[in-house]
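Suppose a classmate hands you a notebook page containing two proteins, each written out with its sequence and a corresponding row of structure tokens. How would you begin to make sense of it? This section walks through that situation. The first entry is reproduced here exactly as it would appear on such a page.
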Amino acid sequence: MTDKSVTCGQEGAFNVRRLLSVHRSFLSGKMPPVAYRQSVLVSSLNEVAASVSGAHDLGEVPGIIVDAAKLFTGTEKIVLYLFEDDEMSGSVSTEVFVRGSKNEHLESWWEEWLPRVIERVLTDGRPYVETDPVEGAWVLAVPVRVKDRTLGVLCAINSVKHQLREEQTAFLSILAAFAATSLENAKLAEESRYSLLASERERISREMHDGIAQALFSISLGLEVCKKKVHRNPDAVARQLDEIQDLLGASMGELRRYIYDLRPAKLQELGLVGAIEYWLREITPPDRMKAMIELGGIPRPLSAEVEACLYRVAREAVTNAVKHASPTQVHVRIDYAPDSVTLLVEDDGHGFDVCSATAESESGATVGLRSLHERVRSAGGGLAIDSAPGNGCRLCVRVPC
């Protein structure tokens, strides 16, 4: 173990109202001790599962685990070691998460004691208990494992007079196994987000190459021609400079749209419907195209993830239609249902072969459809596209709420 960082924090990341209710029932004699302890164990695990499922990123999961271990077992100090292989250097970095009073079981003591205990756990792959008679404390160390890989070790430190009940020890073992699965799932989810970000960058890079880069190259060539003609034919140069100025203005508008594409502040400022309306005005030329948005059902607030998904899909679908399909009409509709929301984007443009475009996207030749599918999947929804050459395009997204 090499690099180490320690994160300390306070307890209380959970809603313990139900647990306290069970505890009061036990104290009043309404519930036998065995039933109480079983109820506490089940309630505790349910609380952890609910908290982990609501975590937004990988960095939140370790804190939830140590909070749960400390809160639901009453352990004096909880220490979670997580290991990560550094493929570049070949070393293993360690991140440490701690819960408990700083004045109880001092770090200067357990920092020297626990590494040896952890080595024993890593070697045997089983929970291990050891007592330090000098300090009057004992530790229960439980491996955090996924299949044959050890992601870390969860340690509970208590004074020798503080013994855990059987169900508390069982909770720590179950929690360690649950922590391993949760960390692995959170890591996969984070990798999926990074993949989506990479595909977004690839899409923007491709569109800039096809748009602004070529426009700037044309402007550069036009200026070279103007330099050569400026003395021989000033009238022709003036006309060409007007054309270059128009092209430059169009490129500046395109660049503003790319910046807006990277920073969708309008979504937070105007809400989902307002942001889509704003984008329709920005991207569709009013003299050549009719664009409209329509609502169905009873509009209601959506989660930030769902709003971002629907907004970005609508924006990309409209942009693709305007740039590549030459439609005369673009129609966006949002339908609110009790348990879901549906986005429909239709245009009467040239259309395209969906099967061929999907194959190109999956092979990596293009990123448009792949990016749309990944974005919708990340929000737990489904995407359907109906189009054919000469018949326009109909894109439908349904996301559960």
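The notebook's second entry, a different protein, reads as follows.
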Amino acid sequence: MVDVQYEQRVREVAMDWLLSRDPSRSRAFGFDELRTFVYDGVALALMDRQRGIRKPAQLSAALSIRTTYTPPGERPPYDDSVGVDGLPRYKYRGTDPDHPENVALRRAFEYKLPLIWFIGAAPGQYVPVYPVWIVGEDPRALEFVIAPDRAQTLAVPGAAVDLDQRAYVERLTRQRVHQPLFRAKVLQAYEHQCAICRLKRDALLDAAHILPDSHPRGVPEVINGLCLCKIHHAAYDQNLLGVSPELVVAVRPDVQIETDGPMLLHGLQEMNGVRLVVPTARSARPDRDRLAERYAEFLHVS
């Protein structure tokens, strides 16, 4: 007999533990840190080093699932397996529906227990997305259906939806899954510093899109991102400054001649002509074509 209240409580405490270590909900964790979680005096690793589905011996249902790291330029596996309902899928362990790990995930579904989804942001580094729910199963495709947001649990898995409904479901997935992962990957690639001013305070850093979510090529990939401090992110979004395809910062002419306090002078005006710091890995550097398109917009409004 499954003690659902106990299983639920373990999950609540585990998620509170993660939140206490990362209030932004976008930091990557390593396995060594994730194994330090303790519940009721007993160590309980939140992620399995070898297996994708984690079911601790103390529990009857799975506690977490894992998706491995996808290098820049490659398509993440959760993007390749989205159903007609707009919800992501998670593959079985192997092909046997009755494998113990698949049974453990099925129990989480049956008892409506939330899970933690660890998604690779770098080799050995995982961003936890939580809570997520298993809301269905497709034995023919050997996969479970995931709802990354509570509102998505109302969807009917496998049922085709109209374009507006699918856009709504996918928007929730972007907010809960893609954006935290995007931030973690961008900050990692830029070595946790603003590409313009070199500020290294994580709490003050954002992953800025070069082309926005609404753009057909505005995908949450590192090559469509810049690590910017909050002031430069806001200035970039408002076209107060732009970044050329040659990776040089341009401050809008009217901003350059304004008179204000030290933030305007040192934070914006003195950034004109600064060359961006970019990732060491060429595959993670900002895409030149996207920069050019975004820079053309900046010049248009300057």
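A careful reader of the second entry would note: The chain has two domains: 4-182, 192-301.
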